Amino acid sequence: MSKYDKSNTTDDRARHTRNALARAIIQLSSEKDIDKITVKELTDCAGVARSTFYTHYSSLSDYFVSSFSGMLARGAMRGQAERNDMVLSTRYILEHM
User: In sequence order, what are the residues at sequence separation of 6 or more whose Cβ sits closer than 8 angstroms to the Cβ of residue 21?
Assistant: First the structure.
């Protein structure tokens, strides 16, 4: 396997992990206050090992900051309607932290 292929595999796994965590936080936040969610609950719901979570993030707060930063960066490249949706989603999450 070339270095390039390994890099793509790593990128794909990291993307899969981020997407699984994002789906899990949305599901869990519909069931309980976001500030009551634990890393164990998040990783169990996402089907991600806690060690994998801690490979990417130092804490749940770090996960939120990283996720919001990425979301805002991606939003800057989207249309106004999509940015408005992201602002509303972000506002909802911040109000429930």
Answer: 42, 43, 46, 48, 53, 63, 67
